[in-house]
Amino acid sequence: MKLARNIIIALIAGVIVGLALNLFAPNVFGPVDTYLFGPLGTIFLNLMKMLVVPVVFVAIALGTAGIGDPKKLGRIGGKTLGFFLITTAVAIVIALTLALVLKPGAAGDFDTAGISYEAQEAPPVMDTLLGIIPTNPIAAMADGNMLQLIFFSALVGFGIAMLGKKVERVKEVLEQANDLIMYLITFIMKFAPYGAFGLIASAVGSQGFDAISAMGMYMGVVLGALLIHTLVIYGGAVSLLGKRNPIWFFKNFFPAQVVAFSTASSAATLPVSMKMAQERLKVPESISSFTQSLGATINMDGTAIMQGAAVVFIAQAYGIDLSMGALLTVVLTAVLASIGTAAVPGAGLIMLAMVLTSVGLPVEGIALVLGVDRLLDMVRTAVNITGDAAAAVVVSQSEGVLGEPDGDGVPAETETA
Ligand code: ASP
């Protein structure tokens, strides 16, 4: 908790410094950003990213070896994917509803005539899913291709479970490697406050605040939907299905959320979010590694919320009505788009092009939301990884393997029962 407190202090300091430079000394901001904020942020991001491939390989191989039984593996996989898909669809519905009621795009006069946006080619979702089997696992690791890495690691773990005693030593090496990586995560996290300071000062300092005031309504819709989804859907799932006090859940997972917020990358946050779930939420390593690595890659409710809200906002700004059928298409394509979104900063916006195209909206509309996306990205990334942790708690509880919480983790009614 001391670490989380230090990161928060660093974030607040970063906001103040970034804001002050933006408002009072915009000329100074450039060099300070280049030589101080930027490097601090990059060092921290790179340190975290450095551990992602080793942590996923070791944790998933060990996790799968721990579960062993293919039937059980399939059951856990099914529950995990079910939770991911349902919560993502619900997230989009919340965002669409809020945007349709509050009409953020009708609020101001948005100049849609002169804008342009160079849409990048979104990777076809089907290709991503079918490309899950790596022809070269080393290349998959080198490229950081998460789905391929997960597939290969799970297969290695499966082999270890099947061969048992014969490969005992391989398992032992992986276990020790896991201890080593966990130590390195703790060590690197000492640098987190400095990194967080640099990242937030850079993000806040480079924002144009005119953009923010015009986009206040849109930001309000996205943030409101993120908040509702987190509190009601994740809080509800943790309480009803996970049988844990949601306040305990949020409190203990908070350090990971702060890191996600400052890095805006689910992938870079993965080592910390797994550590928090295992050590504090008492999710067994096998389920945490599987559910959270997969979730960081394909389960992005925060991103889906932004996409849903942005579609309605852009339609309203262009004065285009969305039919019921179009809204349904948005739900479907935004689920797919959020699955296909890479777990790195800004990726959700690239995939937004796919959702807009699916209902015939102009892709240039993305230019309208571009200016404020960096800040929203930070918040939605924190939501993205919270969904993965909630899934890990719920799936562990349903398998009867969720560990006993320290202190106040049991909901009041269960405690007195
Ligand atoms: N930055 C987000 C993440 O890493 C993805 C996005 O852009 O929405 O989870």
Automatic annotation (TrEMBL):
List membrane-spanning regions. 7-25, 45-68, 80-102, 146-164, 180-205, 217-241, 322-343, 349-370
- In Gene Ontology terms, what is one molecular function of this protein? symporter activity
Q: Name one GO biological process term.
A: dicarboxylic acid transport
Question: What membrane topology was assigned to this protein in its record?
Answer: Multi-pass membrane protein
- GO cellular component labels: plasma membrane
Annotated compartments = Cell membrane
Classification via InterPro entries: Na-dicarboxylate_symporter, Na:dicarbo_symporter_sf
Q: Which UniProt keywords apply?
A: Cell membrane, Membrane, Symport, Transmembrane, Transmembrane helix, Transport
Q: What is this protein called?
A: Glutamate-aspartate carrier protein
